[in-house]
Amino acid sequence: MNVGIVGATGYTGLELVKMLVKHPRFQLAYIANSEGDTTINELHPSLSGVCEDKVEKADVDAIAKHCELVFLALPHKTAMAYVKPLIAKGVKVVDLSADYRLPLDIYEEFYCPHTDVENLSHVVYGLPELFRQELKSAKLVANPGCFPTSAILGLLPFMSKRVADTPIIIDAKTGVSGAGKKLSEVTHFVNVNDNLFAYNPLMHRHAPEIANKLGVDFEMVNFVPHLVPVTRGMLSSIYITVEGDFDAEALLREHYKNDAHVRVSSKPVDMKNVAGTNFCDIYVQKKGNLLFIASAIDNLMRGASSQAVVNANLMMGLDETMGIPDIAYVP
């Protein structure tokens, strides 16, 4: 099955290439960015001797000629300009941007005017634990954000136990790669090294995505992301008020018993044990009516690229675990 990548320059593009060149059924037939005229190993020297394919300047007709499915690792607004003509030409799309994750009114409030409203009506949100069956027949998938993936997976099993109209508090830490390759003062080494800080507290645009997929009001989600001096990884510490007497860990295990990429831990989880994998590790602890949930993922993998390949597997009728890394690279 021929697939392509548009947006191969960034970290998520690199992770996609690494998986697709080793995938049992996908043939990486097209690689592109906004400029072309280079090779993938020139962009990412770590691929030398593994993949040295030419990188084209992105072109819709060329994508449609070479690919049955394409991954768009592009910024929001840029991605939707490709989705509309690609869907019209019969190419399936996994979009890693935010362009199709939200209803129109919420998207335009937090991002920009939308130029492809028609495709919003049949997009599938790419969280397999929520929409596995729908993904199997999808033509367009909106790959979730990294923070929403971590938070939603942690919260899903306990929403029925949550006391209505009580706050959901999410304290999340992420590695610097989540900011992408673009240089900025915030992600400068001198600023990040030996430092830790919150950014966009309570107003980050991933908060409405979390609220929307959990079916709660935006006002109930109190989300504060932090940047930590690590390359990759994400840990969300989540607090909710619950009611009733129940075994929280048993409920968590039962909820995810058939999900290959969620691991329930009896000990607090960490980022290193999921690095380079599609796993989401979750820990839960109950104290009276307070529930603490810790959810760890690799922001570049489960938070972006490996989850995108899982979605593509489902869209193309393959086992969702095919070609997905499952061993963390811990020392």
TrEMBL record:
InterPro entries: AGPR, AGPR_AS, AGPR_dimerisation_dom, AGPR_type-1, NAD(P)-bd_dom_sf, Semialdehyde_DH_NAD-bd. GO terms for biological process: L-arginine biosynthetic process. This is N-acetyl-gamma-glutamyl-phosphate reductase. Residues 2-138 form the Semialdehyde dehydrogenase NAD-binding domain. The active site is at 146. Gene3D superfamilies: Dihydrodipicolinate Reductase, domain 2, NAD(P)-binding Rossmann-like Domain. GO terms for cellular component: cytoplasm. Pfam families: Semialdhyde_dh, Semialdhyde_dhC_1. Catalyzes the NADPH-dependent reduction of N-acetyl-5-glutamyl phosphate to yield N-acetyl-L-glutamate 5-semialdehyde. Belongs to the NAGSA dehydrogenase family. Type 1 subfamily. It catalyses: N-acetyl-L-glutamate 5-semialdehyde + phosphate + NADP(+) = N-acetyl-L-glutamyl 5-phosphate + NADPH + H(+). It comes from Sulfurimonas paralvinellae. Keywords: Amino-acid biosynthesis, Arginine biosynthesis, Cytoplasm, NADP, Oxidoreductase.
